[in-house]
Protein 1
Amino acid sequence: MKRREFTFLAGGIALETALGVGQPARLEAAAGKADFTLRIAPVSVELAPGQTIRTIAYNGSIPGPVLRMKEGKRISVDVFNDTDVPELVHWHGQLVSAEADGAEEEGSPFVPPHGHLRVSFTPRPAGTRWYHTHAMAMDDLTRGAYSGQYGFLLVEPKSQPGNYDQEVFLAGRHWDPVILHRGAPNNDWTVDYKLCSLTDRALGHGEPIRVRQGQRVLFRILNADATRQLNLALPGHRFQVIALDGNPVPTPKAVDLLTVAVAERVDAVVEMNQPGVWVLGSTRDEDRKIGMGVVIEYADRKGEPQWKALENPTWDYTVFGSQAKVPQPDGKFDLMFMMLPDEGKPFNRWTINDKAWPNVDPLMVKAGKRYRIALHNGMEDGHPVHLHRHSFELVSVGGKPTAGIIKDTVNVPRNTTVEVDFVANNPGPSLLHCHMQQHMDYGFKMLVKYA
């Protein structure tokens, strides 16, 4: 279906994705009741006494509602836009059609101002996914990922063992952004923040997470930030990482630190075996002071929440992988990311192989073939790189081989190369981009296209 064929009808429209992934979508009048409803509208939220933020959110709350779907069972979502600007809702990590994906670059239709869009798709793969706006923000720090438009999307597998006692959703977010210009040696533009949250309130406000000794608590953790990496610890406890980006890892491992780049998810089970009142929060003192954390309170325990700093914490994707042999790819792409010199106004421009969007050459693939992408980061910043409508396997991180770790977003540290393999199994244009809002807005994106 060509982009010009999308028309907005007075009563709203329905975007129905065919049952087969990658099959053409069709438009038809929205009829009957949808399985889920999202309403995009202004909201005021008090994160802490006297600290209220005004933003745009889903269904009047931040985060938006947890959308629980069954793997393989077709669903529909009614999206109402009560704002004055067009919006996009992206179903992050889902193998949907380009039309349903919620990305302008792929040809997805906007939800018109004060209008309605119905999206239908068959949820897959299972796991911790999420949904969020995919609108560009540029230098407007009220739009895009700077706003409150995000929420968990949990695709439940057809069968799931009950290996935990309690499930907790935590989404890290920085608030009240301001633009800063950093001089030498970086000489770049960045975004700073005045408030944080890991739940719907800042640390120390709202209700604690109440647990009992001996419980196994599954934490589903999302970095829903526009620009900042999330580093979390729970003193006296370890995180048994069982899934990354919603996909089970080959080697579950207990770690002291969770590092979650922008748009990544980590599923980790914690055995509650240290009774007390603790802070689960950012390892950065500055972030905890402005709200990045939540209180964990054991039954029958009271008192001031405790925090203890970690000694030399590290995070390494490859410890969760295997040593299995990775198939040879049918093709390979090398992508080099660089920042252009400061132009004296927000923000810096970014390039892929010396070209900025929309002038970046697409990656051309053939259906059914396996491709390797070498992501080369030659700059000081880490880049959380996301591929739409596909999953990929980590092959190597900084020269260290690995296998079996399936993701849709990967952090590429500064001066490092990360290699990923994906199978071209979802025809149609797919966006590849840095998930840091200002990087994506100012050039750091490209398309994967099928020949």
Protein 2
Amino acid sequence: MSDSIGLASVTPPRTMFAERAFQPPSGWTALIVLLAGMLLPIPLVAVLGRAFGSLSSASNPAIAPLALLAAVLVSAVCFVCLFGLVAIAPNEALVFSLFGDYKGTARRSGFWWVNPFYTKKPISLRIRNFETGSSRIPEVKDAAGKVVEQQGRTHGRPSKVNDRNGNPVEISAVVVWRVVDTAEASFEVQDYEDFVAVQSEAALRSLATRYPYDSEDHETSLRGSTDEICRQLRADIQERLERAGVEVIEARISHLAYAQEIAAAMLQRQQAAAVVAARAKIVDGAVGMVQMALAHLERDGVVQLDDERKAAMVSNLLVVLCSDRHAQPVVNTGTIYS
């Protein structure tokens, strides 16, 4: 007991990252200032050279070299600062850090200037979607370093999982998401795109095991309660991605079917259930029509039938109404009792 308490006491607290807004100055103003800083020392050195050349060189011979050195330093500093010019596209953000210290995130699109020693990590804020079961395709470069094939994802493959009743089913979903907190997406997880894919796949598998594929008693099922299942899937994925700074906009099942090894048997079962349900509906309708016919005959006094004749009439009507083939009528030319 004491060992567990000691271990818990030395566990470092979990670091919490929250996005901080960062607004850099205009890049156009900085560009003009830096170009002027690089070009102005040249005529300045010429002016200083003529001014000090007219004076006695013995009075202060070190002024000219110092002026030249200062001009070179100013030009070098301005040249280094040019590397701080950045452009931010619409629906894109730049995460800035300085020697491992998070400084903030710039979301406003435009041309800006930041500290050239800042580490800049671009993060797309666009809405993205992917299908579960897909894998990432890395970009391909040739020998010269030119990108031949862009980074992408393969087509999704349905995942095979057992539903609540133990039946193997194939299921896949389409997830629509976007980054809402760039700090969490950058520092809380290793690769937020891969994290979204893996956690979405895990949430889909967990959801499929909690519900049956189909239900006959109006219970929530994967096939019969599509909207409810999709809402639950979105909530499950969002719960898993909360620490990654990602918002799940929509999650919908794109493929749902029994696995191939039981698909034929389940199809026969569904067909049999459909036939039984159809026959039950036909019988209910036929019984109602027979009752209505007998009631009309008795009410209008068309004919008086005893119980035996009523039973025969009911039998004939049910055969005609419930048969799956056209009935061949037999015309009775005698009396009703012969």
